[in-house]
Prior knowledge:
alpha+beta; 7-stranded mixed β-sheet; RimJ/RimL family protein N-acetyltransferase; Acyl_CoA_acyltransferase; transferase; GNAT_dom; acyltransferase activity, transferring groups other than amino-acyl groups
Amino acid sequence: MSATTVSDVRATVLPPVPPDLAARGLGLRPETAQDQDFLRTLYVSVRWEELAAAEWSDDAKVGFLSQQFIFQTRHYKTHYAGAAWGIITDGGDPVGRLYLHQGPSDLRIIDISLLPSHRGQGIGAGFIRAVFAQGAVAGTGVSIHVEMFNHAARRLYERLGFVQTGDDKGVHRRMDWFPPST
Length: 182
């Protein structure tokens, strides 16, 4: 993937919080510098199972994943200029992240992640549907990349209406959602 050029940059905004999620005390706010420790913890929680078979100490796993978090953050900030970096909150406390980028042809979900305590409760699906509504208003589809072995996420995305597009290359699969034709 090449770096985003200035001509590709469009201001991206976070979607409104769906009313059903807001009624449960969930929110979405812009990321700040004070969120870095939380974001590192979130990243480690998301990737932890991948290292289950590694014969490393927990400290070594956390150290490795902390380095990977730094690399991922650097990659995102370099390649997605103009993106919206959101923190999902529950009662004001951070519990996840939603990163979006409006490109020339689609609204990309760069990342959506939740702490284990908040997975499987419809939170991610609710925010993804809010992104669909935002894409439909903009007249674009929505894309996301899913890791090849993340079967739970892939099933969720398919259930929400994403379809795999393009070739299977590398460890990630591109999936797209297209707004209904009018």
